[in-house]
Amino acid sequence: MNLILFEWKLIVRNKRLKQMFMMSMYLYLLFYLQLTISASLKETFLIREFFIWAMFVIPAGFAPIVNINAAFIEKQLITPLSIFQLFQAKYRLYCIVSIVLFILFLPSLFFGIKLMELVAGLLFAVGFGFLGLFYLSLWAYKPFDIKASYFANYQGFDAGSYFSPILGLMLAFGFTALFYWLFNETITLIAMSLIGLVFIVTNRIWLKKISKSFEKTKYYRLECFREK
Prior knowledge:
Helix content is 77%, strand content 0%. The protein is an all-alpha fold and 228 residues long. The chain has one domain (2-226). The longest helix is centred in the C-terminal third of the chain and has 24 residues, at 159-182. The radius of gyration is 18 Å and the shape is globular.
């Protein structure tokens, strides 16, 4: 619990991280309004479900998840904490944030969104979506100043920082589209829920594997941080 609070304080006490998190909340609100107001979005299952599970991924993908804050995590390795413990704390924090967003989104049930769609979107995001975000951290090496402003600041970003998340979103969207094309809405939602549950239940396993891979590049990442 202390590590989860530490990760939250890391966000609210540093200018760049706080601004990134607030931007993710702005996008969440924008998606929320689009889903509840736009009749065309609600009529298209694939687009509607994409918006739903993407909303639960936004805080982790747009805020300081490890794919854009990897070097800062490596700096913390001077403490006795393992990479796995740090990753697990981040994962649990974003799970909590996603659950809060899920609760805030419940009024959308009065605007034509089904409860099963919300549940499937949440499970798919917290399981499969977060797995992808943590996995992307293995390709992130550039550090950035967390006390600087986020706006118009491209420090720490490279081509991979932009294209890797897009590829992940395309893969996840392709999965839902394939099931919808082969079966129907109900089967697609069930498949999304089951896959999400599998990765949620096994989060310790894949977090440990990612942590071990992360550990192999520890000294290179520390050197990148020193050369910032």
